[in-house]
Amino acid sequence: MRVSSLTSSVADSRIICCECGHKSETFEPVLNLSLEIDGHDNLIAALQSFTRVEKIDDQENLISCDGCKTKVVVEKQLTIDKAPEVLVIQLKRFTCNGLEIVKKGQYVQYPETLNLAPFIDEFRQQDQELNYRLYAVVNHQGRPGNGHYMCFIHSHGQRWFLKNDHKEHRFNTDFVMDQTAYLLFYVKTTSSMSMSFHSFITMFIERNRQTNNSEEMSVPEQQQSNNNEGSSCSTMQDQ
Ligand SMILES: [Zn+2]
């Protein structure tokens, strides 16, 4: 099974002319949603910011409109066009400050269940399952240059497991929801996906390492080389 077939979504970038109302749309496949977390303490606020209407009115950088053939002020909005089987959300925790990589360690609250309807156009919501359940949380422990990843995977009921090579540690939901998450994996509530999530997440991270797509997974090379299994930790205690 190809990872991209499960996680691929389509972003709809829409530009509307404020003078004549001409609309242009660009559709772009995306493997995961990469969200800014500055100023946001929860996932919904980050998603709202991701899909907010932005007015581009910088007089030095006005956009040419195909409708009225002049340079105009426009409104731009990014929305999700196709809801993927597995919604992968990356919280942008790593930035480059000159030559130094900086990790943002603030907590961003995330829900166990997520409905994508507010972030998809109403007429595109038909025939799409938009309800998701949280199935895995990946966080990054340590400093940007030498840390490692931990992956919590949902089992059933209120059970979560932290996979650590050949060992498993069980955790309760409250503990998992309190993590400073880096990647969140939401699966459609109607999903019939049979692949184990440990395999899936390992494949996902490996795929990103191979494609070296810095936009989708802005993890420094040194971090990625420490992430052999996509889930490892020997410092956490079972609960
Ligand atoms: Zn126009």
From TrEMBL:
GO biological process, one term: protein deubiquitination
Pfam family, one: UCH
One Gene Ontology cellular component: nucleus
PROSITE patterns on file: USP_2 (PS00973), USP_3 (PS50235)
InterPro entries: Papain-like_cys_pep_sf, Peptidase_C19, Peptidase_C19_UCH, USP, USP_CS
GO MF, any single term: cysteine-type deubiquitinase activity
Domain USP: 1-189
Superkingdom of origin: Eukaryota
Span list, region Disordered: 212-239
Family: Belongs to the peptidase C19 family.
Protein name in the entry: Ubiquitin carboxyl-terminal hydrolase 21-like
